[in-house]
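Weekend entry, working from home. Most of the wet-lab plans are on hold until the incubator is repaired, so I used the time to fold the two sequences that have been sitting in the queue since the last round of cloning. Logging both here for the record. First:
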Amino acid sequence: MLKTRQKIFLARFVQRPVMMARRIAGLGPLTVVQRSGLMWQLDLREGIDFAIFLLGAFEPNTVRCYRTLIKPGDTVLDIGANIGAHTLHLAAAVGPTGRLIAFEPTANAIAKLKANLSLNCHLSGRVECCQAFLTDRNGDRLPAALYSSWPLRKAPDLNSGHLGRLQPTNGAVAASEAEKLGVPWGVTVWCDLEGVKPGTPAQKVIDYCNRWHAAVSGTGYVPGVYVGYHAGLTPTQLYRSLRFTHYWGAYNLNTDQYPAVRGLQMKQLRPARKDVVPNFGIDFQIDKISADALGGRPTLLALEGWPELP
């Protein structure tokens, strides 16, 4: 059996004439195709996607094998589901009475997995997607990035062995920690956007935040963004380029730095001496909460009997 590195070298060789022919035909690397009775949204610059495009399936021998093992009505776990290369075939194998649970920790891959599922509506009802990292020990922390992309173009950031690229697990940590703490679904979980290194491209910040949003919202929580010092985005970018609709501002955020149009739903107040609790070692802050300019409010946890938000 070929190793991943050898597969990538072979795919690069085959990909060149295919991409050249597509360019001549006025076609780009992104495409939606039907293969083996399933619909796929593919990026032909990626190794897994290109294999599906060319061969009809990623690892066809594996697909043929588990189709003989899985029966209608079975429950199957797809651990490390990536873009759904096996998820869709497995979902077809379990049938309408079966169940498939797909686990994928990286934000980029699970977004592509959900896109592929949306193209196959007859399968979506039997598939549950979880952005999670499974281990054999309790308490293991989710790595900030994992290998889930195998580009067919050489680049300095690829692994020297298997030629994979690390992809962030944005948002999955926040969602999993909130769930561990027993925070109920529907509560706003906040992305801390501050301290962005000067010179960081705005699009890089936007992509990070939107991947975080997708991961948190995909687990049932409501994503919000805390806009602090050196957020790296303009008020217009905060409003128009991010998927967020809930904004919380730092105490030193000036009004001309608020997200355009919508504004803030929560504003940190400057720390005051009266806020300090004697002999209590935990710092806390006071926030002013109100509806933003479009009527949006955060969903927060409160003690029973506390008043509703204004």
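Second, folded right after the first finished:
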Amino acid sequence: MEGSFFFTRTATVTTLGPTMVTSMVTTTLSLSAYRLPAWKRGMDLVLGGMLLILSSPLFVLCWAAVRLTSAGPALHWSERVGKDNRLFRMPKFRTMRVNTPQVATHLLQQPGRYLTPIGGLLRRTSLDELPQLVSVWSGDLSLVGPRPALFNQNDLVALRTHQGVHRLVPGITGWAQVNGRDELEIPLKVRFDAEYMAAQSLPLDLKIIALTLWRVLKAEGVQH
């Protein structure tokens, strides 16, 4: 999607608090001139490094638990679509049995039967995502951004490319995740991704991280 393409996006930003406060931000972007904010890589390195250090005991425990409760490696590496639609390998703690079909979970017939003994727990608590902090350091991921599509999710990739979202570095969490996570249909998910691209800022990223932690504690938005 090269060339001088313009679009206008109205972004809805919801703040934390006892009541829901919503502000509307309308931004027109030239996608051909789009550049990632300078502060974003610095936040990924500093905050991501701190989270990696603080979570290292959990990392070791999860690694051991996966190896002890099911046959196969502790980590599962999947082909994902990154910035500018480049493929990269993304790690997660393995929550599914070896030889599970490489498709989105909601496309599996009876996905529960593919889960490892602790797979459901790792998914509900999002502990399976911990290894992705290493991908943040390598630059394949950001802490906040659209969740990376699987290599074969052509409908999601096509919609994101049409909206220009493919220019963003994908993230461990994102605006779509705090607005529904697994519950969202693809068109709505891409709409949230585009809203984030138009309104992204350091305060918004920090807010999304805080909302993510809150949703993880409540185990909201996880279907399997």
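Plan for Monday: verify the second prediction. The first strand starts at residue 6 and ends at 15.
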